[in-house]
Amino acid sequence: MKKPIPSLHLNADDFIPATSEEKESLVVMRESVNFWKDGLRRLRKNKIAMVSLVFILIIIVFAYFLPSFWPYTYDQQIKYSENLSPFEYGKDEQARIDAGESVFPHICGTDKLGRDFAVRLMMGTRISLTVGLICAALILIIGATFGAIAGFAGGWVDNIMMRFTDILYTIPDILLIIILSITLRPKIESLATVKGSLWMNQVGPNSTALVIVFALLYWVGMARITRSQVLILKESEYVTAARALGAKSGRIIRKHLLTNCIGTLIVTTTLQIPSAIFTESYLSFLGLGVSAPMPSLGSLATDAVKGMNTYPHLLLLPAILISVIILVFNLFGDGLRDAFDPKLKD
After folding, report:
1. Are 141 and 217 in contact (CB under 8 A)?
2. Pick from 224, 233, 227: which is nearest to 342 by CA?
3. What's the whole-model pTM score?
4. pLDDT the model gives residue 254
5. Nearest Cα to 281, choosing from 342, 339, 326?
6. Can you give the pLDDT at residue 195?
7. CA 210 to CA 173: how far, in whole Å?
8. 67-71: long-range pairs with CB below 8 Å, 24+
9. What is the pLDDT of residues 132-177, one digit of tens each?
């Protein structure tokens, strides 16, 4: 059988425009997604992370929105209503109920001063969350900036900056918090009288000192993580191209290096929030937290320790709330890590 002789003539039928049916058959079945869309898609598949996110939203509503609609305030002392059990009424409140008046129940009881414990739990959660979020934001800003500069500069600059972080590891944080609480108290109390200084007026010098200590000490881990990422990314082709085009070091760090390790920074910051909340809680438990009458979860547990045998719910409720907050933030942080870490992609 003879083989057909190859021809140099072109077939005109090969250049006929494709029909719409032929074009549809060539369409890619899955649309291209960017880094964030792909990460969010993976995060939505993580049921534990999504349940944790729902709990976080509930806690935020509980702490920041519900107190505005609550009939009691965190510092309101109700006469003859001391140490009430949940859904129990005081003497005057019971008399008002007997007279036909409607009285909102104390869902979580009251403390030894007759203050509604439910609203104090809300405000304590607000303070603990606020301190945790502010500390995490400061750690992100300081740590990411310091680590990016050290990793990008390299050489002796990197050695000096990293040795500085090693020195910070040796500073006892509890001792520094006590010292700052004593030295900063007069200045913070004077600032609290200035109009608009609501934060200092509410939480007092101890928690302000705690935030300052977090800003001074706890960014070291973030700096090391950022440095390790920058050491890898700065050898990439797009960084070399940016340098060849004349981009300055600050722009390269801001636009190229930090942008490409933003997923790792977000995950690390999310995991830093429960650590800050736990630190604030146990410092408040030791009496180094917020100033009375403003509560935090740690200070609520401290006040309830002496009466734990008689009124155990006053200790159990803030302890359970602390545990739930730390647990859901850790689980959500793990979910973010699994979703946005490129090494864990399926």
Report:
1. no
2. 233
3. 0.78
4. 80
5. 326
6. 45
7. 9
8. 67/119, 67/122, 67/123, 67/126, 70/116, 70/118, 70/119, 70/122, 71/104
9. 888 888 888 898 889 888 888 888 888 898 888 888 878 777 777 7
- CB-CB contact of 208 with 188 (8 Å): yes
Decide: 140 and 265 in contact? Cβ < 8 Å.
Answer: yes
Residue partners of 188: CB distance under 8 A and separation at least 6: 200, 204, 205, 208
Q: State the burial class of residue 175 (Cβ atoms within 10 Å of its Cβ: 0-12, 13-18, 19+).
A: exposed
Task: Give the torsion through C-alpha atoms of 237, 243, 249, 250, to 10 deg.
Answer: -80
Q: Could you report the per-residue pLDDT of 251-263, keeping only the tens digit for each?
A: 888 878 887 787 7
For 102, which DSSP code? -
Residues of the chain with pLDDT below 50 are 195-196, 198, 201
Question: d(Cα 344, Cα 8) in Å, to the nearest integer?
Answer: 52
Q: Alpha helix (H) ranges present in the chain?
A: 20-25, 35-45, 47-60, 66-69, 91-98, 117-153, 155-169, 173-192, 198-217, 220-233, 237-244, 249-251, 258-260, 262-285, 297-305, 313-340
CA distance 214 to 195: 26
Q: Which of 134, 215, 181 is nearest to 284 (CA)?
A: 181
